[in-house]
Fold:
Amino acid sequence: MLQVINSSPGDLQPVFDAMLEKATELCEAAFGVLRTWDGERFHFAAAFGNSRLTDWARERPPITPERASILGRIVAGESLVNTADALRDQTSPGFRKMAEVSGMRSAVTVALRKDAALVGSLTVYRQEVRPFTDKQIALLRNFAAQAVIAMENARLLTETREALDHQTAMNEVLQTINNSPGDLAPVFDAMLEKAIRLCGGDRGVLWTIEGGRGRFAAARGLPAEFVALLRERGESGTHPPLQRVMLGKRLIEFPDTDEEFSRSGDPLAKGAIEAGARSVIWVALVKEGVAVGAFAIGRPEVGSFSDKQVALLQNFAAQAVIAMENARLLDELRQSTDEVAELNRGLEARVAEQVEELGRVGRLKRFLAPQLAELIVSQGDEKILESHRREIVVVFCDLRGYTAFTETAEPEEVLNFLREYHGALGPLVSQFEGTLDQFSGDGIMVFFNDPVPCPDPADRAVKMAIAMRETSGKLIAAWRRHGCELGFGAGIAQGYATLGQIGFSERSGYTAIGTVCNLAARLCAEAKDGQILVSSHIAEAVEAVVRLEDLGNLELRGLRRPVAAFNVVKSTSAPDARPNLTVVAGVLEG
Structure:
């Protein structure tokens, strides 16, 4: 049963037919019928078994159940009505009379309910007195539950399709507008065709209203003679329904045009009958409270359009007004100038440029401070990221005791530790407008004066390192309480390097290569906990703003000659730094 439901999405007939066949056979019944409930009447949906009874059930009009009848009891709230012998049933005379004619005796009717709401009924009959067993009734209840599932699936699928059809119809109208510059006829024809399709009609007319007069805009599925009559009556102001629309009527229905002709004698009603339109609906197109047009949709069946069809048509009419206004404005714009098209192309190009610009900024922000990344992109010159040589200041910093910590800690602990460490120190790189080369474990490499030159690279580098020392000091104090013996050290050097992008299209970085990078890294490796070791060039540049400790010449691993090194003790004000100038100058001169 579930396989039939899955293989027939949105189509209930094969599901109902298969369900009734199985239910009738398994319950050893001669005949079964399934009906749907619309809130007022039961409608035939499917039947199986005795062909005479099947034809009778199919041809029977919708049933408005009496209170005492079997179906009336279902409507009243009973979930199941089990009739042992219809001929002896005293509660439903109508059912007993039907049994006398058809020969039906034992019967079971099960309600189809969705969230306590009645949606239909399922009944199986026998032509002999043999009450259905509890097992057969349980099977019937199961079939009823599956029928409800199928009906709900069909309802959801239908709603989805209707919403998609509605959206598709509107998109097609908009596409027609775009493809028909200066010509509204294809637009009106497309609107009418979509309106007819949405409400289940097969013919119709679209009117526009200008200056108090109707204007014939489009027609579909109607004879030429009738179209000519409509045009003449509408534009002469003698079309009654159109006049009612202009007077403020928003919805007009003619469930039976034959009855309307008999009542009014209007030749238009007669023409509609001859054209095959046995029921017609009018829906006004309204803009700012005033009718600007109307759809008149017909179909060959007598009867009112459903509430859903009316709602769909009214909703489409509201959107059609917008489309008509768009078409009118677009036509005026196209007639006056081609600048709109050029503007659109310019806007599209600008959007593409902005998207590309955002992408470039995003890529640059991976290694540059946000303000520098935006500056480079705004100037439109990324050539400065190509390989070149420049004097830079390089800062290396890492943690003392990190390797020992990683040997004893769990990988998850190390990862959480690095997240906190990088999260605290990373923003300082942007704050001082440095260029981030890399995060490698606990090691961080930052350089200044490239790709955007700055007037005080050494000063920025030292101030950033001091801020990192202070920030990491707070973290280290907390980590030590958890048994982590860690410390912070940094090295800063100044010199020439070759810089440029490395990597590939999907992932690239910006780096510096040269002896100055090695020197900064070696100074960092030599630094003890809390030390920021700087080269002589850096010391000379920042002597006015920091207090320096002369460490003499240091033998650094990987470098052939000793290097003069200084430790940044703390930041000071200019007056405090003044006495230190002589000491530093003397050291540099020596």
